[in-house]
Amino acid sequence: MAVLIAGLILFLGTHSTRIVAPGLRERVVVNGGERAWRGLYTLLSLIGLVLIIWGYGLARQDAVILYQPAAGMRHLALLLLLPVFPLLFASHMPGRIKAAVGHPMLAATVLWGIAHLLANGTLADLLLFGGVAGWAAVDWVSSVRHPRKPVTSRAPSLRNDVISVIGGLAVYGILVGGLHELLIGVSPI
């Protein structure tokens, strides 16, 4: 469990600099340049992600059961996961979805975490999915309170919304259709 926790701390901590140390990015960029910031951010994130994957795999081998999900929770989880990939697509494609949601990637992350908590009941699940969903919710609130300037100058497009929905649902179908089981070892159906 220690490996999973260390990975979560490193990954989510790296992704929390805007929340807990709002000026850190700017200071690193001023002192070392944009490449220094991106390099450090990427390296720490990748190390954290590797530790999360490895730690979650280790924790699943000797699972601590906290609760047994109620009947039908897998179906509810699958329903909650439907908008996740369209939201992820929309986070990179300006359109009405992005304008309406504001932060579609964070919304997708919250839904992803909640859905997985409904269908899984181990301590490792609570740490991983609950931790990531909780972090995303805090980041979402923080980003609403302290908005950043938009990175893109492209105008919102209905075409982008259509691509987000079709592309996102295609990825969802591929994952549910077998890729999740191939990658994670668990069929979501």
TrEMBL record:
Any one Gene Ontology cellular component term annotated for this protein: membrane
Keywords for the protein's UniProt record, in alphabetical order: Membrane, Transmembrane, Transmembrane helix
Domain of life: Bacteria
Residue ranges occupied by any NnrU domain in the UniProt entry: 3-188
InterPro entries with a match to the protein in the record: NnrU_dom (IPR009915)
Keyword Transmembrane in record: yes
A Pfam family it matches: NnrU
Membrane-spanning intervals of the chain: 40-59, 71-89, 101-119, 162-184
Protein location: Membrane
Membrane topology of this protein: Multi-pass membrane protein
Name assigned to this protein: NnrU family protein
Organism: Chelativorans petroleitrophicus
Organism ancestry: Bacteria, Pseudomonadati, Pseudomonadota, Alphaproteobacteria, Hyphomicrobiales
